[in-house]
Amino acid sequence: MHGMASTLTFHFRPQGPGRFVLGGFLSVWLCGWAAGEVFVLVMLSRLLREWAAADGPLGEGTASSTGMSMGMTAALSGFLLLWVSLWTLGGIMALREWLRCFWADERLVLNAEGLTLRSRLGPFGRRRRIPSEEIRHCEVRGRGQHQGALVVELTDRVMELTRLGTGSERQSAADALNAALGLRPGAAPPTAGEGVEAMAPRLPRRWQELEGAMFESPVLVPNLANRRLQTAVMAVVTGVFGALTFLLCRSALGQASYWIPAGIVALLALGCCWGTLWLLLGRRELRLEHHQLVVQRRFGRSLREVAQLESLELVEVTDSDGDAWYKLQGHRPLGKPLTLSSAINNAAEPRALGLWLHQRTQIPYRDAIPSQSEREQQRAATVLALKQRLGESGRAGSWMLKLVEQIEPNKNPPPAPPP
Fold first, then answer.
1. pTM of the predicted model, to two decimals?
2. Which of 190, 219, 281, 348 is least buried, going by the fewest C-beta atoms within 10 A?
3. Is the CA virtual torsion 210, 215, 220, 223 positive or negative?
4. Spatial contact of 334 and 342, defined as CB atoms under 8 Å apart
């Protein structure tokens, strides 16, 4: 890659008539969204003005000429504030999709320094660079080439590059990138028994290793920056529910009908408060030792050992919706396996974590995700078992089995002989 003499550039823009259908729908929806946004903001402004102009302490007097109490006014104001926040977020996301239909531009540039993605959405631009040594595979994923996105699988995650352009343009870019990087064009990413061990282990971004005097051994924890952001968001939600609980309880002192909504909101506030405390003071840690991986739980200054893991295994399970989940499980001498990491429809992150832990602690690691040939053998074994059960189910089953066996050879008819 470092010896590349030329630069590959791919340019993607919105294509296809479907974007006009989606863009038209979003245009109508955004008009309704704007009307709802203005209506709720005006209502919220009126409630806040009436609240500020009301005479007497909270819970006494009248909030407006309709006889609404101060507690109910405050509760309604808090609800509208939360609702308009979510409504605004939904509008921003819809506006992004609208811009993606009509005013978007994405460029991929591959050179000796790596792969650079330059995205422009409306007046906003963004630039991201991916070192070439981190790229394992490029492909178009999704339901058909016209719907799938061009993605790149890295050592620790899967990153979407673009959904713009036509399906053939994205597929051509994937093939060209694989060829330029020396990867197998059109091949699936490696699975069990297909050279996974040859991938350089890399710690996923969602995790962080900590060392220092306060730790007996290095520990692996969820990324602290992400944790702080989650704590801040949960603290804001807790504050909103706490304020609503206080106002409803003040109103309930004068009117018993407020006790039921006050109790419901108080339970929500307590749940959010516990979530905030856990994010702030508690976490699950993986203590890294030689030939041993210890799961421990920390809350404040207290530390409790949960399990000692003797091996790791990456497994694939299917949920009720047919989605594939990939789980990195730790096996202990007694008890069920512990799930350390999971991801839906892609095994890159849990696989990277398992390989990294295997290299770091030297405990056994097994990739149990079946290869393509193993999947075909499993399907063949399932079909054979179903045929046996069908043949043993009685005359009707035997008749259906014969009918199936007569149809199967005709599914792939032999090619016609040459003239």
1. 0.63
2. 281
3. negative
4. no
